[in-house]
Amino acid sequence: MRALALLGTALALAGLCAAAGQRPAQKTDSKDGKAQAERMTPFGPVKSEQKQEQGKGEGLRSKAEAPPNLRAYDEGEQVRFESRLPFGISQYRKKKSELNEAERAALERDTRKPSGK
Hints:
Layout lengths: L1 H19 L5 E4 L5 E7 L2 E6 L20 E6 L2 E8 L2 E8 L5 H11 L6
Antiparallel strand pairs: 1-2, 2-3, 4-5, 5-6
């Protein structure tokens, strides 16, 4: 029993010593002018490209997109949603005042009249 306790302590100390030698993530610029971050992993250093941060709100979509498998059916004060899943069709209803952005987008997409025909 003592051998297991000593082994656990030794492993914990070895992990702490190994972590002490690691350096924190560093941000650098590559030859192409792209920002990169270098961080140390147990398998060695890893460089990853970072996206340019845009101003507040610019990186977010201006309008939510409806999932392609979500269909909306207007039923007066409520909206019925159907979603195709691998094991069948899932249905639920919501009041129009309680819809989130994706559900509103699905309702707008499915209630639009087809043009050109």
